[in-house]
Amino acid sequence: MEEAPATVFSAKHDLSGGGRAIDFVALDAPTPLPVRRKTGLPEFDRALGGGLVPGSAVLMGGDPGIGKSTLLLQTAASIARGGGNVVYISGEEAAGQVRLRAERLGLADASIKLASATSVRDILTTLGSMESPDLLVIDSIQTMHSDQIEGAPGTVSQVRGCALELIRYAKSSDCALVLVGHVTKDGNIAGPRVMEHMVDVVMSFEGERSHQYRVLRALKNRFGAVDEIGVFAMEGQGLAEVSNPSSLFLSGRDEPLAGSAVFPALEGTRPVLVEIQALIVRLQSGATPRRAVVGWDNGRLAMLLAVLEARCGLNFSSAEVYLNVAGGYRLTDPAADLAVAAALVSALSDRALPRRSVWFGEVSLAGEIRPVAHANLRLRESAKLGFDSAAGPTNGAGKEGKGDFPDYRPMSSLLNLVDRVVGSS
């Protein structure tokens, strides 16, 4: 193969020589592996995959006022009280404002090294003159700036450059770094997308400020499972952990109501029982019926209504349909199809579903009930919370699941669902 002719550009930018040789390491090299550090908040540890990994970089995003700074201040205080060396840098608040929050949360006695700064050069110079911390919190990366980069704080070049320098420090010093990130109106982390590739863990702190609960979700995790969640409740003394999230999303009433179905959702490895509510309103005029959805995909509802009409002969075209996932929870699990269909059929026929029953399964365009992942895990959690009846795919419960649920009703199509709901009294 002929060598490409040399040009002025290739001669100036030739990178094939003059560098330093790198060292290679075998996968089974006898090198001590990093030990995770527990944060003192089991729900945070669960979302991280077991704790903070030394030298890792975590990017946490969330809406304004959702509780990101509160969660990280509680985490920093917990690690500091356990003997860890913690540095908390706030670029958005003065040190006095952070101390006020710490006093309100009862964390003022924690030995956290607190500072208010926005210059990455000043921060790295200070960190280089002291013992490297176990945890470094930067709140937030959009407020940081470098005097080596043109542009105001928050611009693409500034955010990328500052994040790169801070991550490089974390890797070289075995310091766990947590960066707080602003989000856009669409809920995505503001700034360059490459920042999410640079870090090891991307977390989203979700929830409605009008609701009590908060969900910490791992969107990317090089050291653990993706889509694992931790659940918190916002209280007067800060964020409290919720060990049984299902209690937040179930109504707790004894008597079943028409249009209500319970679905065992799966978030990572954690089953969470949520209540799906449907309301059908018949229209007398020729007005276009409305479809309103809260907590579920609008397109998925339209598809499910079309399948119920085409395959089961039910008439939703002349009725308004309202669907709500109780508690402000957002469902993305495709196994929710059967529970939504059960709630719709129950509301249309004005007949309540069987008491203490759960429903799960994916619905195809042919009206078939398709199997879903981790059916036995969903059933075990449902049985633990007192549910004794379940409906799902024909092969949805193995021997273990059927042992927990003697009343498991396998369904092969939506016609089985309609027969069970409409045929019940």
What would you note in describing this structure?
The protein has 425 residues and is α/β, with parallel strands linked by helices. The protein folds into 2 domains: 34-243, 3-Layer(aba) Sandwich (Rossmann fold), CATH 3.40.50.300; 248-423, Ribosomal Protein S5, domain 2 (2-Layer Sandwich). Helix content is 30%, strand content 24%. It is built from 13 helices and 18 strands. It has helices at residues 8-12, 42-48, 68-81, 95-104, 120-128, 156-173, 194-198, 246-249, 298-312, 337-349, 375-384, 399-404, 414-423; strands spanning 57-62, 86-90, 113-116, 135-139, 176-181, 201-206, 213-221, 229-235, 238-241, 260-267, 270-282, 291-294, 319-325, 357-359, 362-363, 369-370, 389-393, 407-411. The strands form 4 sheets. Strands 3-2-4-5-1-6-7-8-9 form a 9-stranded mixed sheet. Helix 10 (337-349) runs parallel beside helix 13. It is elongated, with a radius of gyration of 26 Å.
Sequence-ordered SSE layout with sheet pairings:
Blueprint: H1 8-12, H2 42-48, E1 57-62, H3 68-81, E2 86-90, H4 95-104, E3 113-116, H5 120-128, E4 135-139, H6 156-173, E5 176-181, H7 194-198, E6 201-206, E7 213-221, E8 229-235, E9 238-241, H8 246-249, E10 260-267, E11 270-282, E12 291-294, H9 298-312, E13 319-325, H10 337-349, E14 357-359, E15 362-363, E16 369-370, H11 375-384, E17 389-393, H12 399-404, E18 407-411, H13 414-423
Parallel strand pairs: 1-5, 1-6, 2-3, 2-4, 4-5, 12-13, 14-17, 17-18
Antiparallel strand pairs: 6-7, 7-8, 8-9, 10-11, 11-13, 15-16
Helix pairs in contact: 10-13
Organism: Croceicoccus pelagius
Pfam family, one: AAA_25
GO molecular function, one term: ATP binding
